[in-house]
Specification:
The protein has helices at residues 2-14, 16-22, 33-37, 41-53, 65-74, 90-111, 157-165, 188-198, 226-238, 249-262, 278-284, 309-321, 330-336, 380-394, 408-412, 426-429, and strands at residues 26-31, 57-62, 81-82, 85-86, 127-128, 133-137, 140-141, 144-145, 150-155, 169-172, 175-177, 183-185, 203-208, 223-225, 267-272, 291-294, 299-303, 340-345, 348-358, 363-371, 399-404, 417-419, 439-444. By secondary structure, it is of the alpha/beta class. Strands 5-10-2-1-13-15-16-14 form an 8-stranded mixed sheet, sandwiched between helices. A 7-stranded mixed sheet has the order 17-18-19-20-21-23-22. It has a two-stranded antiparallel ribbon with strand order 3-4. It is elongated. It starts with a helix and ends with a strand.
């Protein structure tokens, strides 16, 4: 019991940076009808309530595919697809409206709970829904009239932001309305993507049955660049025949993530609605629980190659002359170039860091952390630190240390604590330069 409490306290403390980072940000959460029908949905509602209490501004987008299918079956109506879109005739539209209303009501009811001794006690969440979307018909596609199947024409971002600023959660369904008063059945992924881009959301979170994307070794991919995600979707679509079998959930979600990133959303997350706590784990832990799809940047972090020696020397020489860094000859840098991680911007090196492992001690030295003076003030140093920490964990290291004379505060702010020189690995201790009198700081991984 004591160990459980300590673990909880430790996790809660380490979640503080994420709490601060997420406060006031706009998140769009897409919950398909499958998620709402899943037994774990109550837990998801509890986690949404927690995010609301932490100051996250949320838009929930819900679907109702299985609920529509159930109503069509009850009416002895056969679902009809054309190029993977539902053909929504008058009879189907009635089923769509009933299903959407049912799901929306269930979500509102869950978010209204406030029983004592439950996570919802005292939440007092206000949910707002309405005609925030203008829609238009898809029309005739390859000779087939899709009738009341539509697409998003416009999202009223100003109205939604007004409600978010008031502390309300905004709930969007997959029903859209035209200026002529018509009702259209929209793809939930289209609504979520357009909402995220129109609101300049910080995140789009897509709940699916799976945790995310798995590689050929059946290992979860924690991150994907948009170009990789786009290639995966293209490969999937190329393998489809011309039948009207629906796209897989994962392909739809990946496509939505790519579209959102292309539209300016920095990060999209694919997480499981079946896994208890997946939302909190993804948002408040370093490891996450799903797959994050990231925008490409004209800045990239990569491993250094021998061709980078000249650019590295040019960047670090001024700091060597000031005594901030230990001098490195070109020959030494060439022999150690594989230790370096770089930030490259438009072909120029603007940041670097090096990792020197002491595998026997399961310790690594973080060295030569440099950001070009023209590019300081952002989070590039943190990005380099995270990249080096990931490398260190991958090769089995359990701790990082750094020797510094002038930048101690930067490392302390990132979890490093001062250590005695005697705490250094034996091999490093023998090379310690007493004249420089560098301070030693270390942190666990």
């Amino acid at each position: 019991m004591i160990n459980d409490i300590k673990q909880y306290v430790n996790w809660f403390r380490h979640s503080s940076p994420y709490i601060n980072a997420h406060r006031g940000k706009v998140f769009v959460l897409m919950l398909g009808g499958e998620a709402v029908a899943d037994p774990n949905f109550d837990h998801i509602v509890h986690d949404i309530a927690l995010l609301n209490s932490l100051g996250v501004r949320m838009v929930l987008v819900h679907g109702s595919r299985p609920q529509i299918e159930a109503r069509l079956s009850q009416q002895n109506l056969k679902p009809r697809l054309h190029h993977h879109r539902r053909v929504t005739d008058e009879e189907t539209l009635r089923c769509v409206i009933e299903a959407a209303a049912s799901v929306r009501t269930e979500i509102e009811a869950k978010l209204s709970m406030g029983l004592s001794n439950t996570p919802m006690h005292g939440a007092q969440i206000r949910v707002v829904s309405g005609n925030f979307m203008t829609a238009r018909p898809v029309g005739v596609h390859d000779g087939v009239d899709l009738r009341h199947t539509g697409e998003v024409r416009r999202i009223d971002a100003e109205a939604i932001n007004h409600h978010l600023n008031s502390g309300n959660i905004v709930l969007l369904s997959h029903l859209g309305y035209s200026p002529t008063g018509e009702i259209f059945n929209l793809a939930t992924e289209d609504v979520a993507t357009r909402a995220a881009t129109s609101l300049n959301a910080d995140k789009l979170l897509l709940f699916g049955a799976d945790q995310g994307v798995f590689d050929s070794k059946n290992e979860l991919r924690s991150e994907l660049l948009t170009r990789t995600a786009e290639r995966l979707v293209s490969n999937y679509l190329a393998g489809l025949d011309q039948t009207d079998e629906p796209h897989t959930e994962l392909s739809r979600h990946l496509h939505a993530a790519v579209q959102a990133c292309r539209g300016g959303v920095n990060r999209c997350h694919l997480i499981s609605y079946q896994e208890d706590g997946a939302l909190l784990t993804e948002l408040f832990t370093r490891e996450g629980s799903g797959t994050m799809v990231l925008q490409e940047s004209y800045e990239q972090i990569r491993q250094a190659t021998i061709e980078d020696v000249g650019g590295l020397l040019e960047m670090i020489q001024p700091l060597e002359e000031q005594g901030v860094l230990v001098r490195r000859s070109r020959e030494l840098l060439e022999s150690e170039i594989s230790r370096f991680t770089l930030i490259e911007r438009d072909g120029a090196i603007i940041g670097c860091a090096a990792l020197y492992p002491f595998k026997q001690d399961k310790v690594g030295e973080l060295a030569c952390v440099v950001i070009d003076p023209q590019y300081r003030g952002g989070d590039r140093g943190d990005m380099l630190l995270q990249a080096v920490e990931a490398q260190a964990r991958q090769i089995g290291l359990e701790r990082l240390f750094v020797l510094t004379t002038r930048t101690a505060h930067w490392f302390v702010e990132r979890g490093f604590k001062e250590q005695a020189v005697d705490a250094l690995p034996t091999e490093k201790k023998s090379l310690y330069n007493l004249q420089r009198n560098s301070k030693v700081f270390a942190k666990p991984l």
